[in-house]
Amino acid sequence: MEQVLEAARSLPLFKLGARAVVVTEGGKTGKLYILKSGDLEVVRDGTSVAAIAEPGSVIGDMSALLDEPHSATVRTRGGAEVYVADDPDAFLDAHPAVARHLAKLLAQRLQKTTALLVDMRRQSKVREDHEMFDKIFALLK
Amino acid sequence: MADENWLKFDFYPAGAELIRQGSKTGSLIVLKEGEIEVLRDGKFVASTRQPGAIFGEMGVLLDRPASASVRALTDVQLYVIDEALTVLEQHPSWLLQIARLLAQRVNATTAQLVALKQLENDEDNSDILVLPTNVFSTWADPQI
Hints:
The complex is a heterodimer of chains A (141) and B (144). Chain A is built from four helices and six strands, in the order H-E-E-E-E-E-H-E-H-H. With 141 residues, chain A is of the alpha+beta class.
């Protein structure tokens, strides 16, 4: 986070008031945002699903990397200071430590989603076996 | 480290183990030619003959032992990047490429999770598979 903030110092800083929208769900800014101070909330389908308050948090990475629309709206609560990288690729190219940090976060996320997926598949397999067992058992009765 | 030596060419015969599950090397492998398979706990997970396919990136980035083994199905030619994290920092475009691949995979696995979850919700007896909702928000929230 420290390294991210250090790198972000070269970027323009925006001061946002309360309830200001940073990115909109379904919209595509193509930019990368780095929280300097304040707090943000993530809103999906009108429901607040998470809070972001740690300085150095990166917003918009998935959208920027994949060139896809934002999957959620991010807005300020009380207010926030946010660095904005208009050209994420150039910014990450110039700051490998940030790129490495992002890659690490993505790897962590991937590990979590993969573990969950494996878990769910295993559980549904158990359930299938269970159902099969019930059927066999019913036949035996 | 001499800058030109970071990409080592190497080749292995069919059947050779390129990465052993549980080992920690800090190296990255890039497939050049041939076919490899990925095994977890001795069970087949995937195979590829795609030149440019990367292996070992999760272990490198997370500084953890390999979560699966990689084995040569045919004779293979590949590139090895030792001390990959250091090398990658000197080649940010590679890092960016890997970040992009990871982002794609995060998207794909998330989509599968959502589909599975949906499937369960559609069923009547969805009492077996209940994940706490906070689990979902933790993996889903920062993907903006």
